[in-house]
Amino acid sequence: MSNVPVLQGSPRSARIAARAHLSALIVDDESHVRAFTRQMLTSLGVATIWEANGGAAGMALYAEHRPSVVLLDVNMPFMSGDVMMARLMAIDPTVAVIVMTSANKAEIVRFFQELGAIGYVLKHIPREEAMDLMADALDSLLVGDEMD
Hints:
single chain; alpha/beta; Rossmann fold; five-stranded parallel β-sheet; 6 helices; globular
């Protein structure tokens, strides 16, 4: 028998692996934002990701797939993020929503927190900071799963 120690994965890699069972729906009217968000979620370990270019398409995909988390833009044509979030909460009060916006106003953050958002990510912050915020929000879902 060898005395070589068994190397364990880092806590970070364990969290990434744990996120593999999460699924996400990205709802944003800007394709480059959806692509960037998909890249971040993939880097964070989320394996199943759907995309919608607006609120109506997002509602349909949510109803069909019931993802673990919805990443929701605030300012979209036809159905704004607050209207979509209210509709999501009406059909599923436990829905996990991370709000994504370029609006850095305390009243908007409070408004979405009061609606039940689990996270708030500003689109113009550095990538690493955005990833940290998303990771924290995703990890809060894992804690909820472990408590079930």
